[in-house]
Amino acid sequence: TDCQKNQYFNKKAFVSYLIHGCYCSLIIFFIPWASMNDAVRNDGKDIVSHPSFAFLLQTCLLIVVHTQLSLDTYYWTAVNHFFVWLSTIGYFAISVTMYSNGMFYVFPSSFPLFGAARNTLNQPNVWLTIFLTFLLCILPVVAFRFIFIQLRPTINDKTFLSSIRRSTRSGYAFSHSQGYGDLVTSRKFLIKRPLKMTALFTQTDSSIFQNQPQHYRTIVVTVPDCIFSGFKQDRTSTSCESSLCSWGFQ
Amino acid sequence: MMASSYSAKDEDGHITVSGPGGGTLRNKKPENTAFKQQRLPAWQPILTAGTVLPAFFIIGLIFIPIGIGLYVTSNNIKEFEIDYTGDDTSSPCYNCAKNFSWNNTKSCTCTIPFQLDQPYESNVFMYYGLSNFYQNHRRYVKSRDDSQLNGNIDSLKKPSKECEPYASIDNKPIAPCGAIANSMFNDTLTLFYNDPNGTSVPIPLTSTGIAWWTDKHVKFRNPVGTNSNLTAVFQGTVKPVNWHRPVYELDTDPENNGFINEDFIVWMRTAALPTFRKLYRIIQKKNTMAPTLPRGNYTLVVDYNYPVRSFEGRKRMILSTISWMGGKNPFLGIAYITVGSVCFFLGVVLLVIHHKYGNRNNSANISN
């Protein structure tokens, strides 16, 4: 429904993405710049060399991007975990390898920035700078999202908020809401129950159903809360409608 | 809908359909595994008040002490800076700066007196700083040959094309080649302490241990020849245009001569910003309880060789002590205190918002 209402790709959304991008870029450059201006290592040697500074900026950027990605992922399956953690750890592993002795011996002209990772990452003020940059980029996003959830919750937010119990199914095929496969194949909804709300669809005779389990003429479902006994009782009517229609039932 | 009949579902979900033609069609349904049916167990992070608000408060409470600690540490670091560019007539180095020419065989010396108000304990680090010197210019940064600096004999005789136009003079290769090496800082700075009874005591300056260990021992190596004499190894090469001495005469100590000279290595590590400082010498702490640099009058004697007036640069000498977070840098401390306070304040604001508006959304009526 958010896509149907064009909420994700209009001018207002574009401007907000633009502002967010500009803000993060400025933070990622200027905080390390201000922190490294006239800085030295804790044994007195230089730290503001060109490759070290670039490596610091890279690291800040990667960490901010990964965290933003994590915030935007609604369902964390094993696949998500694997790729995000692989990416983060892989970045550090590859950087350290790239800046290591071994690669330099083999290809001295291709890996001239040797030593930058090792000599940068063992400085506490480098890690403090990274942490500060990361928080300055992520905290506004979290704050804004929280405020919007409180003030103007979307349908998805409402369903999320009332289902505090962790979901065990990732129905990401259905606009980030849980699918109805269970419901339809369990035949629970075919049992006649006293209705509390107006039924969306009428119920057909059950004799046809018993002969041909997969063949229906009309949709045999009503959407009151009590039907969803094996389910969470918080499906909104509109999301139910869109999901069931997408199954192809008439 | 089709009028064909369906048989009961198989165990694995495949349905065989018999159509009017009599043949069987294999259904293309994907396998009934958790991965392919999108039934993987998932965790769903939700931004509730219970997670966000404590997070903000905790971050605020952690950052403020860290910021205070950083600020106090930075304030305890002692630093002293002298600008000796000599662009002002009142400056002692004005004559040296004004009369600079590339053909000078005799170097110009200027003397700058200064005073330290506080004693400096533990190791004191002496830096030279340059301003408006863009060591991060792209063409400049590429103008070096790392194979040559690593001791590769072939690269010594034939420097890479990146070094052009500082690669060879009259068909003789330059060692070390490139614009970075050519513009090496060659001022000599010495310090004297003026005793209360009038004598001028030279302060011992250590010139080793100033470059990164990885640079000194791995990245920069002298070329190895049949003769261990460096002069012989560098036979057939010429010194860079702007240097006064060739590379094998940079220091009398053989461990600090040639490409592994630490001043050279420190210079070759290009700085990222146009105003930078590089470590020049270390004043080791004394074995006694006396401070390394006691309070009093000092003299800085400069061998003025490095021209900066043509690009309106500035030169300075910095004396500084060091702590666990490096040199004097109040920015991090102030930033942490600011961010911690803002975070705490934002947490309070979010708490108010949640209290006022959040509760009305938790009612049972969520259908719209």
Automatic annotation (TrEMBL), chain A:
Keyword Disulfide bond in record: no
Subcellular location: Membrane
Keywords: Magnesium, Membrane, Metal-binding, Transmembrane, Transmembrane helix
Single annotated GO MF: ATPase-coupled intramembrane lipid transporter activity
GO biological process: Golgi organization; phospholipid translocation
GO cellular component term of the entry, any: plasma membrane
Domain of life: Eukaryota
Main subcellular location: membrane
Domain P-type ATPase C-terminal: 2-154
Membrane-related topology note: Multi-pass membrane protein
Transmembrane segments: 14-33, 53-71, 83-107, 127-148
Protein name as it appears in the record: P-type ATPase C-terminal domain-containing protein
Automatic annotation (TrEMBL), chain B:
Lineage: Eukaryota, Metazoa, Chordata, Craniata, Vertebrata
Entry GO CC: apical plasma membrane; endoplasmic reticulum; Golgi apparatus; transport vesicle membrane
Membrane topology recorded in Swiss-Prot or TrEMBL: Multi-pass membrane protein
Region of interest (Disordered), ranges: 1-29
The keyword RNA-binding belongs to this UniProt entry's keyword annotation: no
Residues in the signal sequence: none
TM regions (residue ranges): 46-72, 331-353
Biological processes per GO annotation: phospholipid translocation
Pfam families: CDC50
Recorded superkingdom: Eukaryota
InterPro entries per UniProt: CDC50/LEM3_fam
Family: Belongs to the CDC50/LEM3 family.
Cell compartment(s), UniProt: Apical cell membrane; Cytoplasmic vesicle, Secretory vesicle membrane; Golgi apparatus; Membrane
Protein name: Cell cycle control protein
Keywords: Cell membrane, Cytoplasmic vesicle, Disulfide bond, Glycoprotein, Golgi apparatus, Lipid transport, Membrane, Transmembrane, Transmembrane helix, Transport
